[in-house]
Design goal:
The protein is an alpha/beta fold. The protein has two domains: about 170 residues, Rossmann fold (3-Layer(aba) Sandwich); about 50 residues, no CATH class. The chain has ten helices and six strands. Strands 2-1-3-4-5-6 form a six-stranded parallel beta sheet, with helices on both faces. Helix 1 runs parallel beside helix 10, helix 2 crosses helix 3 and helix 4 packs antiparallel against helix 6. The longest helix has 16 residues. The protein starts with a strand and ends with a helix. The relative contact order is 0.16.
Length: about 230
């Protein structure tokens, strides 16, 4: 049974993946959900993107041309890995992937705020009310209860830009994107498609940032068809 290695995005629970995983299994594949350090696996220090690249290298060390699915931040990790170790993956599947650096005022504000919060740590964030307000201002209320190391890790990751690395990727790549995504806009997916040599893009018109949750059948069908393509 062929394995699909899945790198989830910024979440602390995998419950919403259940339907997607069931459909992948029903299609005759073995989904391997990787526990991402700092999220579904504990860390004892802040991490940077290179740490995640080596983490993924270790997870895939015994695999020959593995297929990797990366959602959001998981896509960022997969892209960075393939850029550093080109040709290692058999196929790459990105779902509303992170990795493009934005300079829009709202994004710059969020990036700056997380940088400050990561540095000051408990000096400010020990005040629960203030912490909630600050994270709400950044539009990232989900992270308000994150451990300090995880907050610092996030601040490290969102400052990275993989744009210049995308042209180095030659692995057959499927890019799936929700047209209504407000977290990683469709323009990011279109840029990735333009720069990644062997890529194709599939847009879900009413999908948002996590179409594998809301449109699992549609996403799984596209992934399975992509995997079964010969010569792509």
């Amino acid at each position: 049974m062929q394995k699909l290695f899945i790198i989830h995005g910024w979440t602390y629970t995998l419950i919403k993946w259940d339907k997607f995983l069931e459909l992948i299994k029903a299609a005759g594949f073995e989904p391997v959900m990787l526990k991402v350090p700092g999220l579904t696996e504990a860390i004892d220090k802040p991490l940077v993107l290179d740490d995640y690249i080596e983490w993924l290298k270790d997870k895939l060390k015994d695999e020959d041309k593995p297929i990797v699915v990366g959602h959001s931040n998981g896509g960022r990790i997969a892209l960075a890995f393939e850029a550093k170790y080109p040709g290692h993956l058999g196929k790459l599947i990105l779902i509303d992937s992170a990795g493009i650096y934005h300079k829009e005022p709202k994004i710059k504000f969020k990036r700056a705020l997380f940088g400050v919060l990561a540095k000051v740590g408990k000096k400010i964030t020990s005040n629960e009310t203030l912490r909630k307000v600050l994270y709400k201002m950044a539009g990232e209320a989900d992270y308000q209860n994150a451990p300090l190391h995880t907050r610092q890790t996030m601040a490290n990751l969102i400052t990275t830009d993989l744009t210049e690395s995308l042209s180095k990727i030659s692995t057959p790549t499927l890019i799936i994107w929700g047209r209504q995504d407000k977290t990683t806009p469709l323009t990011d997916g279109e840029l990735m498609h333009a720069l990644i040599q062997s890529s194709q893009i599939y847009i879900i018109d009413d999908g948002r940032h996590s179409p594998q949750y809301t449109h699992p059948e549609q996403v799984c069908e596209k992934i399975i068809n992509f995997i079964q393509q010969n010569g792509f």
